[in-house]
Design a protein that fits this description.
The chain is α/β, with parallel strands linked by helices and 464 residues long. It starts with a strand and ends with a helix.
Length: 464
């Protein structure tokens, strides 16, 4: 398998190159040159198999012969044995034709664990084979950072710098990052928004001299390996519910478009699927784009679902590349428009092609709070605000007629990561699982820095 950049000037890359580089040299995102295909028989064979086995079968075509099958098998086993639920990603029925896909049973209680724990295994193996070191620089709106730190803490060949927006993640999210004291972990609270953090990381990647000096790599969802790994739970959930004999719609709470693009990847690989429904909070750039065709970031609004407080959805570039038939020149032109004017507009035919497969709905703060309360009253179950956003979007998709058949909503985080919001909506305060109950007594360690590229580079250079 070889990879190319969405912007066309970085092509023919191997999987291990893409894994370690993260972002393409031309600023684009990597995609496989061709989509691997799984037959209906292969997909049907996933029914009832352990999650790690399905993971190996789904990711192996993207890796090719660069990692031997027996080593990849052990990597998958090591990554997914750390989940607390025997099904790894269990399903819960919440309506006659609606299910929640529970993705919060990993060590940091969020869906990011599914990709990060495998990414850690991949990094350790590839860097060991190459006898190289890597400096990971990533931005987080809350969950990515904790999952990355948990997966990479203590690794001999990896230094980790995670940027989070100061005061804009929940205390539980922050402490899952800042209470880790291994020498290779560096937490930075940026005086700005998540979009500011993400922009700093992109600018550092764009500086070839700096990137080479520190041996820079990525763990954000710009890294293809993350998308690849997240495609797995679309297959396991579908086959648990009768797929591939019948198709499902998926409703995905998303800000950076990575988790829902993983669903698109599963569909391209052969998984029958109806609608992929984007669920957003008040930071509704994806809804506005699919409604009007103009991608125009606005000021980030602070909400009770902070992991989606994003106005620049990086992975949307991958979907645009697909909709444009891999026309890298056209993609690069749109990205130049975004950088120069702060927006770009999709043509009517491109927008129509995206709407054939995707829908998008936003949930207001009152709608999100109401959904948390309703689910608790009807089922006794506590859900986090991001899952609530997903369920609101699912209701709106059904009311509009966009979803009519069975649907799976991704439940992306444990309610205890957002205890204040959940308690305000339900009157009940969720408890952290065993093993994390002393989290608020642990000592924190992090730096606070301004939203300044030069200062950020100097800090990372001095700590590397």
């Amino acid at each position: 398998m070889r990879y190319l950049s969405t912007r066309g000037h970085d092509t023919g890359r191997s999987f291990t190159e893409v894994l370690l580089k993260g972002l393409a040299d031309d600023g684009g995102l990597f995609l496989p040159e061709t989509w691997p295909s799984l037959s209906r028989e292969q997909i049907d064979s996933f029914t009832g198999r352990p999650y790690a086995e399905v993971a190996q079968a789904v990711v192996a075509p993207f890796i090719g012969d660069e990692i031997p099958a027996d080593i990849l098998r052990e990597m998958c086993k090591a990554a997914y044995r750390r989940f607390a639920h025997p099904a790894t990603a269990p399903l819960t029925q919440v309506g006659p034709t609606d299910w929640l896909l529970e993705l919060s049973h990993g060590p940091t209680l969020a869906f990011k664990d599914f990709a990060m724990l495998l990414l850690g295994q991949l990094f350790e193996h590839v860097l060991g084979e190459k006898n190289e070191r890597l400096t990971i620089v990533g931005a987080t709106s809350g969950d990515t950072g904790a999952a990355a730190i948990e997966a990479l803490r203590g690794l001999a060949n990896v230094n980790v710098f995670i940027l989070h927006p100061e005061g804009r993640v929940s205390e539980t999210q922050r402490r899952m990052m800042t209470c880790v004291h291994e020498a290779n972990i560096h937490n930075i609270a940026v005086q700005g928004t998540f979009d500011d953090c993400q922009a700093l990381v992109k600018e550092m990647f764009a500086d070839e001299t700096f990137r080479a000096e520190i041996g820079m790599g990525a763990i954000n969802s710009i890294n293809w390996a993350r998308i690849m790994a997240q495609a797995v739970y679309y297959f396991t959930s579908a086959t648990s519910l009768g797929g591939p004999a019948r198709a499902f719609s998926y409703v995905v709470p998303t800000g950076n478009f990575g988790d829902i693009f993983a669903g698109y990847v599963a569909k391209r690989m052969g998984l029958p699927m109806d609608v992929l429904c984007v669920a957003t909070n008040a930071n509704d750039i994806l809804v506005r784009t699919l409604d009007a065709g103009t991608y125009l970031p606005q000021e980030t609004v602070r909400t009770v679902s902070p992991s989606m407080d994003i106005q620049v959805s990086s992975n949307f570039e991958r979907l645009i590349s697909e909709a444009l038939g891999r026309d890298s020149g056209a993609v690069a032109h749109l990205m130049r428009d975004l950088k120069q004017t702060g927006a770009f507009t999709l043509s009517d035919n491109i927008l129509a092609s995206i709407r054939e497969e995707f829908a998008a709905y936003a949930a207001s703060e009152p709608e999100c709070e109401s959904m948390m309360g309703r689910v608790c009253d009807l089922t006794g179950r506590l859900i986090d605000p991001h899952t609530a956003v997903g369920l609101v979007a699912a209701e709106k998709a059904r009311a509009s007629g966009r979803i009519s058949g069975p649907a799976v909503t991704l439940s992306t985080a444990h309610p205890a990561k957002f205890p204040d919001a959940v308690e305000a909506a339900t009157g009940k305060r969720p408890e952290l699982p065993a093993g994390l109950q002393d989290l608020f007594e642990r000592e924190e360690r992090f730096s606070v820095l301004p939203n300044d590229l030069a200062i950020m580079k100097q800090h990372i250079l001095s700590a590397s």
